Amino acid sequence: MAGGKLIIFSAPSGSGKTTIVRHLLEQPDLNLAFSVSAASRPRRGKEKNGEHYYFMTVSEFKKHIKNDDFLEWEEVYRDNFYGTLKTEVERLWAEGKNVIFDIDVVGGLRIKKKFPKETLAVFVKPPSIDELKIRLKKRSTESDDKINMRIAKAGVELATAPQFDKIIKNYDLDIALKEAHDLVDSFVNPKE
Fold first, then answer.
1. If we measure between CA atoms, which residue out of 21, 18, 12, 16 comes closest to residue 129?
2. How many Cβ atoms are within 10 Å of 6's Cβ, its own excluded?
3. Residue 29 near residue 17, CB atoms below 8 Å
4. Tens digits of per-residue pLDDT, 63-116?
5. How many CB atoms lie within 10 A of CB 60?
6. Structural domain spans, the chain
7. Taking CA 121 as the corner, what is the angle to CA 22 and CA 117, rounded to the nearest 5 degrees?
8. What is the pLDDT of residue 2?
9. Measured between alpha carbons, how far is 30 from 10 in angstroms, rounded to an integer?
10. Residue ranges of the alpha helices (H) in the chain?
11. C-alpha span between 143 and 109 (Å, rounded)
12. CATH number of the domain at 6-188, please?
């Protein structure tokens, strides 16, 4: 695999990484395309296959693992697999794009390890765990048990922040968006 740049945004659920990634995708100067992950979980709300995730059954996902079709993958929760198909990144690179990921911390660090020179890994830090819980509840997409699982996982994820190239503290969204744009711009459009 060879091609453009890889830009990873990782964070605990509710930190604002998806909002930041969506904003960056709208910036033509960055020449970004979104890497759609594969997932073995059911669709939520209005999610569409191939747009939000490539939805698979657990057995389909395991078959792809066996065939070494993933750049990275993880069983995030029991029988809840997420991963990046190699063909997805190759497709976007063939279009001449830099690939941006909205991905969990383990997957993000695995990609960074495989492509250290081509990858910018950014961790989005939330204001606090309490704020995360408020944001997750406001979504109204998951049960209290799921939210509590995500909050418990957030502590572990926050501990990985120093392993990333950059950390953006998302206390003020406008500031975080500008900081993210400046970081990605200097990575994909380096000034000689």
1. 12
2. 26
3. no
4. 999 999 999 999 877 889 999 999 999 999 999 999 999 998 989 999 999 999
5. 14
6. 6-188
7. 125
8. 58
9. 19
10. 17-25, 58-66, 86-94, 105-114, 129-139, 144-159, 173-188
11. 29
12. 3.40.50.300
